[in-house]
Design goal:
Blueprint lengths: L1 H84 L8 H6 L12 H9 L7 H35 L27 H4 L3 H43 L2
Helix pairs in contact: 1-3, 1-6, 4-6
């Protein structure tokens, strides 16, 4: 025992230095590992945020396109009602507007980058404000809008089945060009539509629904998406250096 203590007393600086080197080596390896993990995590975060921004920009174009189609529908509904209530004459161009009184429009969108973030854990997004805003857009705004869209599509399908048959030669006459709802829908008896109270009720109700869908649901969706894109651009400039 005395021999061991004697050796330790003589060589403690050497042993201390060796232990210190060992500790520094372990700590350095640990820090290097953390650095690598943090760098990989940051790359993953940037990739996810860029993906969200790209998808939201595509969604925004879809929103603007759909809003434009809904405005055409709004114009068609106003024009048809004005002609019917003022004993107007039929002309071929009215077939185009009749066709726009009901459009089965869908919001085609993507949430794949946000779903990737959710699968990895939303804390991959380091900025709490950005994380909460993305959750608000995708899990709240999109969900709220899509439920309203389902109701709108269900109403359009009901009217297609119960209002158009017997009144028009055929429905769903979309030409398919430029992905718009351009086409024609020819009434079987235009004059009878002037006194058809059920059809007048349909047109007026559809006016209200289209105004609400466009002015409230789509407008709010557009604002949320535009705001989110701006916030992502700012955040990416901050962290992608």
């Amino acid at each position: 025992m005395k021999r061991i203590l004697s050796i330790l007393k003589e060589k403690w600086p050497e042993y201390f230095f060796e232990i210190l080197v060992l500790i520094i080596g372990i700590y350095g390896a640990f820090e290097l590992s953390n650095y690598g993990e943090n760098k990989a995590r940051k790359r993953a975060e940037i990739e996810i945020l860029k993906g969200c921004k790209t998808e939201l920009m595509t969604d925004l174009e879809e929103i603007k396109f759909n809003m434009n189609e809904l405005r055409k529908s709004q114009t068609a509904l106003n024009l048809i009602l004005e002609v019917l209530e003022n004993d107007g004459s039929y002309h071929d161009s009215l077939a185009f507007h009749f066709n726009y009184t009901l459009i089965p429009i869908h919001f085609v969108h993507s949430t794949s980058s946000f779903e990737t973030a959710k699968s990895r854990g939303l804390d991959i997004i380091s900025n709490n404000d950005i994380r909460n805003k993305l959750i608000a857009v995708y899990d709240s705004q999109y969900d709220f809008f899509l439920k309203a869209e389902q109701e709108e599509i269900a109403e359009v399908q009901y009217q297609m089945r119960h209002i158009l048959p017997g009144r028009f030669v055929s429905g769903h006459n979309f030409e398919g060009k430029d992905n718009t709802f351009d086409g024609s829908m020819v009434p079987k008896d235009f004059e009878s539509l002037k006194t058809d109270q059920e059809y007048h009720y349909f047109i007026k109700t559809q006016q209200n629904r289209t105004r609400s869908f466009l002015g409230y649901f789509y407008t709010n969706l557009q604002k949320s998406v535009e705001s989110m894109i701006h916030d992502l651009e700012v955040e990416l400039k901050r962290i992608d250096r």
